[in-house]
Records
---
Amino acid sequence: MNNTIWRTLGRFVLLMALQLLVLNYVYLGGYVMPLLYVLFILMLPTDTGRIPMLLISFGTGLLVDIMSGALGFNALACTVVAMMRILFADRILTRGEPVVIQRPSIYSVTPQHFIFYLLLMLGAFFFVIYATELFGFRGLGGVLLATICSTLVTTILAIIYQLIFLKKEEA
């Protein structure tokens, strides 16, 4: 149990550092904004309680907002993703079976289920971000295009992150 906490904290520090020091400065064509730090929330153990999940997610988003000078968009989007994860993660990752996954990853569940999980959660995350931030400027078409592009790029980065930093035996 203690080992799980240390690994989770290490993943938090690594993803936050990567996000704040590198990915916050990557903008591709105005429609792609990779926000890989949300993978921390998506990889929390499935037995994390509802209230801790919401508080951790809100705190993570708020920290990114404070460090990057945003107006609360990340805190809102992370809280929405946490709520969606509470409602849907068991159905997607474990297919309704009473199984606790210590670290949802491409190794701990079937790759197609994990990729579907990433696409669904990241799609919701980016839609909330772009709908609150850009809706008045770009309209629904721009929001959807930015959501799709950012979701695809961040999903690819999340898979690469897992292939590099996770070992198959640890998952």
Note: The two ends are 14 Å apart (CA to CA).
---
Amino acid sequence: MAKPSRAPLKPQNRRGSPEAIEKRRAARLFNDILGGRGAGAHKRDGRTEKRRQRLMRELEAGKARGSRELKPLDVLQRVNELLELGEPLSSIRKVAKVRKGSVAPEDMVDVVSRLHKAYGFRPECYRFVGVSDDVLRSAGVLGAEAPRRGGRARRRAA
């Protein structure tokens, strides 16, 4: 005689699914716009503000959650996320220690190209781990016209 099969397994929790996350984000945005805060207010909810503070703290200390040393990929992820949250590059630069590149640029091009295809980090993020603009151009991250550093364009005196 065959044993009766077990009851079907409990469905997996869907709170962390990409669809559920997108629903929550869309709902918050909808409530913000119709609730009077508007898109221009840039007021963050408590969770987002705490996350921003934690990311800034971790970049400043160079450690994740207070104990583990940040790897270069961790730095890229944190800087990219802070930029997506609307944090200005200048304030990130104040707390993050920019690492110097110790690897030959020729060796970095293929690795940076693969990494950029996989993650799609913003080009500004790579500077925090010591990747130069030349490497970014060769890897296809930056176009031929890279943004110049130094702020405003200077005018020549006529």
Note: The mean pLDDT is 80.
---
Amino acid sequence: MTTSDLTSATIASLPLPSSVTEPRTPEPDGNARRKFRTIWISDVHLGTKGCNADLLIDFLDTTDSETMYLVGDIIDGWRLKKKFYWPAAHNDIVWRLLKRAKRGTRIVYIPGNHDEMFRQFTGLNFGGIEIRRAAFHDTADGRRLMVLHGDEFDAVMLSHRWLAFLGDWAYVSVMKLNHLVNSVRKAMGKPYWSLSKAAKHKVKNAVEFISKYEEIVARAAGERGVDGVVCGHIHTAEFRAFEHQGRQVEYWNDGDWVEGCNALVEYEDGRMEILNWPEEMKQREDAEASRVLAEKGDDRAQEAA
């Protein structure tokens, strides 16, 4: 079977708009949603066991925006070519994205290297989702941002594709261990923790690669005359400001939903922030627990009176 046959077979087996079924877990009715002007997410890697689908479903069920960018590697075609894996939760995510588009959110999908089979559909629209090779976004306060996945600037991807596949194999192995560790943590009542994220911060070569990558991407944005860039690809959520020919260029990476579980958001006034969703969920749960305790305290006080 040729690479093109594999690509065709992979696409044909995926739950595209015409074949997406009703979700296993429906959207909660009357759920309060945090409103943003724009949301960016990337590196979801649907089709792999490493995808933190339940956390992403929670994010989609509790947020909303006028525009949403899917900044690549939403579906992991590399893994699906080797072994098909598509649990109900992954279908639920696709359903939610299509539902969001139907409600009027503008959704722009920029395929990355793991879902590069969708790049052949650049310029088309599937279920209200626009497919683009790259995009430009104007913030509410007048900044112009270039939006792309970022594999275009990865020297390993460009020069040694075989090494990228080897690295993918090693990465999947770490993700399996990460899944096991967090299954144990969940059973113990502890929050999500990223093993690979902690390891990357400890390994000098990984830190140097990430820093160099950020610099290269920011320089490319500066050369194109924009105020900044939003990308994904390296699974490291970050904001940095660089100088380029006397101008400040912003570098934003929206992270991933395998390790860090991050999203980049823009508020109505143009301010931008990287959200770490496990932390957001913990804060919400702590606030709810405090509210319940306060209500119980009020009830006891009324009974005593």
Note: The chain is about 45% helix and 20% strand.
